[in-house]
Amino acid sequence: MTLMILAHPDFKNSIANKTISESLAARLPDIEIRNIYNLYPDYQIDVDAEQQALLRHKLIILQYPMYWFNMPAILKIWFDQVFTYQFAYGSLGNKLKDKKLLVSMTVGQPEINFQKENHFLIDDFLQSVKQSAEYTQMNYLGYTALYGISPVSGIAKNAIAAKAEQHSGSLYSLIQKFC
């Protein structure tokens, strides 16, 4: 089974992340989606509930918009509080061993801005996620990104939704491949 940790600070106004998660839920009725902003608007993470969710699944997807070249704050807090000593690491901390981790993010800027000649590489921004996965003995599967979807750039909402629907289809294919 697949677990999606959804971390969008303004999900009710989201177009892309909402479309991706809702479309994926329609394709995969057994997916568990944990919208951590809805669950923890006060940022008080229920560590036991989150750890139990991780234990139930083989594939974990982190779904979020890129914020200032990083993950939203609540997702960092989630990592800090949920990936605990003797759960995720330490002499007895092998609970995440061999689980698969895939990042699915939305990026407002166009993909060309993240090519080598522009010095902004998504792989660089994801090093902390990759290292966290490796440190906890998870299998880091890389990332998939949906670029150029910022409504402030003048892209129509229906065009963003269409691109997000395509991204969801690609994500669905990756889930089928990895499960």
UniProtKB/TrEMBL annotation:
It comes from Snodgrassella alvi. One of its GO terms (molecular function) is NAD(P)H dehydrogenase (quinone) activity. Keywords: Oxidoreductase. Residues 2-166 form the Flavodoxin-like fold domain. This is Flavodoxin. Coiled coil: none annotated. InterPro entries: Flavodoxin_fold, Flavoprotein-like_sf, KefG/KefF.
